[in-house]
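Email to the structure team, subject: AMP-dependent synthetase and ligase model.

Hi all, the expression group asked for a predicted structure before they design truncation constructs. Nothing fancy, just the tokens so they can compare against earlier work. One-line instruction: predict AMP-dependent synthetase and ligase, return tokens.
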Amino acid sequence: MKYPARPATIPPQLPEWDPAWSRIVEARTSDGTHEFHVLDTLPALTAAGVEPTGTIVALHGNPTWSYLWRRLARATVDAAQSGARAWRLVAPDQLEMGFSERLPHSAMPTPKSPEVRRIADRIADFDAVVSDLFAEVAATGSDTHPIVTIGHDWGGVLSLGWAARNTDRVAAAISLNTAVHQPEDAPVPAPLRATLAGPMLPTATVLTDWFLRVTLSLGDLDAETKDAFHAPYRKAEDRWAIGNFVADIPVDDTHASDPELQRIGRDIAAFDKPALLVWGPKDPVFLERYLRDLRQRLPQADVHRFETASHLVSEDHDVPGLVLDWLSAQFDSPETANTPAEAAPAKGSSARSGTAASAQGSSSGSAADVRAVAAILDARRDDESIASVDFAQNPAQQITWRHLWHVTTSIANGLLDLGVKPGDRVSMLVPPGNNLTAALYACLKIGAVAVVADAGLGPKGMTRAITSADPQWIIGELPGLTLARAFGWPGRRISVRPLGPVRSRLFKTETSLTELSRTPHRDELPSPAPDADAAILFTSGSTGPAKGVRYTHADISSLAAVLTRTFNVTEGTGLVAGFPPFALLGPAIGATSVTPDMSVTKPKTLTATAIADAIIAGRATMVFASPAAYLNVAATASELDEQQRAACAGVELVLSAGAPVPLELMDAIAEVFPNASIHSPYGMTEGLLLTDIDRDGVAAADATGDLGVCVGQPIDGVELALAPIDESGESSDELLQGETAQGRLGEFVVSAAHIKSGYDNLWRTTADSARDDLHGLTWHRTNDIGHVDDAGRVWLEGRLQHVVTTPRGPVGPGGLEALIDSDEQVSRSSVVGIGPVGTQALVAVLDAEGTSLSPGLAPLDLSARLREKVAEAGGHDLTAVLVAPEFPTDIRHNSKIDRSRLATWADSVLAGGPVRGSV
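Reply from the structure team: attached below.
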């Protein structure tokens, strides 16, 4: 079958496509002059009276075309018209793809066909087109502005290769899902293997549109968008290049294009300009190993992962917004704005950190002020008193400070001998207790980074979290190693205990902590810098995919200092830690830490007798647990014997974290710990201690009648501001403090030495959360909403994404929920919004569990009573009161309600859907 030549054409009218963007460019390539269809926003900018001050050159992959960049084109034009830097976007359709020229062919494409256009030819084509366009610009004398490349799929590696060979012109590079290197010991991804198999290649790519349809299924595309991507590929003669591209994939070193791909890889590794890697982890072709390879070649690159995205990441998420934000961070600061490409400094931060250069700030003090995390442990190396008691082991295991120092130092030396380097990531698949403490502090001593993903995330959530962090090592107990093997988690494996030859081979473990603990000590261990990463702690995932929160050594030292300062936790204090994050701080503050007998993923398994036994073993005067855990402690208090009651009576301080504690629960806790001061500090993974309130404070706050949950006032060292919420439910860029913040509904924004340093591999999330610069401090947007009263107390009213935008203005659901929960027939509630933004109706959803209520509409008397309460307190009207068969909550705290899921359920029920459907 012969395929005739055809000239380049202009696309028809397509959704989201401006015909003014299209032009035909003739360029002289390696085999003659050819016509290319090019997306070029210059005419649109000129028509708007805007002169470009930067150029983005974009390259699509296979089987897409420049339509892939339509939203970036629109975003750049809109931004330029609004006064931002004017980026011109140039996006050619590769030769024979999209609406560019088709060459004549006499046979189907195969890997060895002389008609196949190779990788080297495509880079030469790209160079020819953009060079001709740049020549136009040079003729006007305005060619000094920055040039940035962006590519996707095979366009990613081609554009990166071109950028690396044109560093005199290119100021920065961006790539979406792509690959540079196919490891010899890893198979080609299954979809490609199937396509490359013999006659399947022409059948799947040219004779049918199967390859195109499968690719377009890897994104959330509507029918119109899919049809637009199909537009240049209606017939087999239009699709020859799709098969050409697949045929030219170098699957091994015998392929004709393999030497060129290897050269490109080396060139990219020498590229030292700013770079951004955007990734959709659900891509079945461009797998995590390809991102890992790119990060090794571009260590300066920022990374942003859209955890729910697949191959067509730009179709699923706001990639244009991310790109423009990143470009602004690179080029719009006073030092870099309007700077020629060759003079633009490389501001990209560590790819591991995912931290925006513009969002960096020093919140941890100078290096001289920071005490090493293991300083107290090292100072107590000869102390024979008890450092830790682990009730998770049977029998309970006690270890001294001397033993803990010796074991952690030996393990640290053993890890170094094994090949663990400072900065390596080590996934901790070990439950809280002595083993985890030993592994963690051994890593901290040598500058390895501990990755902690809560088992409460479940296998899927943990897989997503650990894959995102991409650790080089895993230290695990048998259950963790089993999950790692089953789900293919990355990292060389170390067991806690020796497994024996058979199980060692099964789980691919190289050694054990037990064996490493016998390693002789070196004279000196590496000394990590204060600003070096120390840990990646994952959030609970209660409001979306769990995020990895980066803590440096300075951050952890500051957190230890805050705990010491705020609650007088000093050396020798006995601390029962039923809340895992604080169990690990014991050696950093010199406290004797006791891990009670409980399941980490099930806080309600902590009983009164278990916590009393832990108090006795550690001679503890301080107890830390979650509200869900305390509920069961109070419920099982009758099982305490006389000695256990006496031990509980000796506790001086009770702390609860993870969720606010209502006065009723505080009163119940006081029955168990009659002589303790009961506190409920407020915090989050990003800032574990921010405000504090005690039992008397909660009682005083309750008496005011304010709506919400009062969490007290900021602790010493924490600055708090409020970003007011507008009618659309968004928080303002303006920050209010003092009297101007009082009584306003807003998002809480905090600054402190012990808040996170960033989010891991989430560049935009980091930049957005730390975008404020009030008083020159580094701030964190908490995503928690509420108000500050005239006494300076903080009242929580929910999460920013759960704001209900009623015709009367925005409403924080937590305030009304606290009011509804006070009714004797209600165990807990959730207030959600139904309908369009700005006109949402308020609906109260009650939890049926633990009550006599039946799922469906609430009883008329209860509904009327709750409506009256809400109307009197806030002037709001409840459209409906529903009872849900179950409430979706996070596992870690067993208290954070997923209001989004309840809103979907309520909307369905009110529309006539099933009451007992999945919530």
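The longest strand covers residues 32-40. Residues 19-331 form a domain with the Rossmann fold fold (CATH 3.40.50.1820). Ping us if the truncation boundaries need rechecking.
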